[in-house]
Specification:
Elements: E1 2-5, H1 9-19, H2 25-43, E2 49-55, E3 60-66, E4 72-77, H3 81-90, E5 95-96, E6 98-103, E7 110-116, E8 125-129, E9 132-133, H4 137-148, E10 153-161, H5 163-173, E11 177-185, E12 188-189, E13 195-196, H6 202-207
Parallel strand pairs: 1-11, 4-5, 4-6, 4-8, 8-10, 9-10, 10-11
Antiparallel strand pairs: 2-3, 6-7, 12-13
The structure holds 1-O-pyrophosphono-5-O-phosphono-alpha-D-ribofuranose (PRP), uracil (URA) and magnesium ion.
InterPro entries: PRTase-like (IPR029057), PRTase_dom (IPR000836), Upp_B (IPR034332), UPRT (IPR005765), UPRTase/APRTase (IPR050054)
Protein name: Uracil phosphoribosyltransferase
Pathway: Pyrimidine metabolism; UMP biosynthesis via salvage pathway; UMP from uracil: step 1/1
């Protein structure tokens, strides 16, 4: 598994504002989308393209276009939805599938409550979006789901990650092709398995409380 941690002052600046507990919800949403576009640039570095010929006003030349089947973007509901527009801005022709997952805050185990994905993901490059890689249970579950459907190349993009989360994903990936792109690598988890220093509950900060 390959891991990339962003190293750019604009990403760190936007992340700082996201972490600030006084940042209001509309700003949090906007910044999540902007951050995603910056991370998507790194995450799509190996998106599959094929050569094809075009004519400029001057001459014929070769260019590239996305290879079929087109990439599949999979935001993990709820919080991953806040990253979707930022990704789609960069890859507007990609298709989008959805996975709804919620972590049980007592057991820390994820449950999948919704799924809307193509039956077969054979030959598909998949891009999974979830801002928070904490214990890694949710993302590991999502990646397993995609491999079980036939995907052979999964890139996960997270705003924040932890060393514990990376290890969970490394185990889940085994020798399959998984790439992890993080906006920042945080210190670890607190006794409630929240990321430290983190930014709190990403879903709640994007969309309000979960309504339990
Ligand atoms: O790495 P883990 O320990 O599994 O935790 C991370 C997960 O927790 C959050 O989702 P949550 O379950 O809070 O759902 P939400 O997006 O609806 O808020 C987050 O968006 C991840 O999916
Ligand atoms: O810090 C954390 C951990 C899990 N889920 C979140 O939204 N934030
Ligand atoms: Mg949440």
């Amino acid at each position: 598994m390959r891991v990339f941690v962003a190293d750019h002052p604009l990403i760190t600046h936007k992340l700082t504002v996201l972490r600030d507990k006084n940042t209001p919800q509309p700003t949090f949403r906007l910044l999540t989308e902007e951050l995603m576009t910056l991370l998507a640039y790194e995450a799509t570095r190996e998106v599959r393209v094929e050569p094809y010929e075009i004519e400029t006003p001057v001459t014929k030349t070769m260019g590239v276009r996305l290879t079929q089947p087109l990439p599949l973007i999979v935001p993990i509901l709820r919080a991953g939805l806040g990253m979707l527009e930022g990704m789609v801005k960069l890859v507007p022709t990609a298709e989008v599938g959805f996975l709804g997952m919620a972590r049980d805050e007592e057991t820390l185990l994820p449950t999948t409550y919704a799924e809307r994905l193509p039956d077969s993901l054979a030959g598909r490059q998949c891009f999974v979006l979830d801002p928070m890689l904490a214990t890694g249970g949710s993302l590991a579950g999502a990646i397993k789901f995609l491999f079980d459907r036939g995907a052979d190349d999964v890139t996960a993009i997270c705003v924040l990650g932890t060393p514990e989360g990376i290890e969970t994903i490394r185990e889940a990936a085994g020798d399959r092709k998984v790439t992890l792109v993080l906006g920042a690598l945080d210190e670890g988890l607190n006794d409630k398995a929240y990321i430290v220093p983190g930014l709190g509950d990403a879903g709640d900060r994007l969309y309000g409380t979960a309504g339990e």
